[in-house]
Amino acid sequence: MKNITWRKIALIISVILVGAVAFGIGYGLGAVDSAKFMIDKAVKIMQYEGINIDITRAELLQYYIKLKGGI
Fold first, then answer.
1. What is the Cα–Cα distance from 48 to 16, expressed in whole angstroms?
2. What pLDDT, on a 0 to 100 scale, did the predictor assign at position 65?
3. What is the pLDDT at residue 32?
4. Which one, of 67, 65, 66, lies nearest residue 31 by Cα?
5. Can you give the residue ranges of every domain in the chain?
6. What's the pLDDT tens digit per position in 13-71?
7. DSSP state for residue 39 in the 8-state scheme
8. For residues 60 and 39, is the Cβ–Cβ distance under 8 A?
9. Hey, is 50 helix, strand or coil?
10. CB of 39 within 8 A of CB of 64?
11. Is residue 60 classed as helix, strand or coil in its secondary structure?
12. C-alpha–C-alpha distance, residues 44 and 50, integer Å
């Protein structure tokens, strides 16, 4: 009786852990995709207005991460 109960508990915990890991991976990928999207739009806006771009995409990403408070 005890063995079946512990198996059910282990199965439930493993499903919860897999769900949490999958959610974390999805959240991280979404944050990276949104950062890339915002950087691309900022670069396009700067180019349309004729502003000389002296900042690289990496620097824009660093500023974005600083504004978000870190990842």
1. 48
2. 77
3. 78
4. 65
5. 2-68
6. 888 888 888 888 888 777 777 778 877 877 777 766 666 666 677 777 777 777 777 65
7. H
8. yes
9. coil
10. yes
11. helix
12. 10
Give me the residue label for tokens 């979404």. Answer: 30
Taking only Cα atoms into account, the Rg of the chain, rounded to an integer number of angstroms, comes to 22
Q: For the chain, give percent helix, strand, coil, nearest 5.
A: 85, 0, 15
Q: How far is CA 40 from the centre of its chain?
A: 17
What pTM was estimated for this model as a whole?
0.48
As to burial, measured by CB atoms within 10 angstroms (0-12 exposed, 13-18 middle, 19+ buried), residue 61 is middle
The tokens for 62 are 């660093």
Question: Three-state SS string across 6-37, please?
Answer: HHHHHHHHHHHHHHHHHHHHHHHHHHHHHHHH
Query: Tokens at residue 71, please?
Result: 């990842």
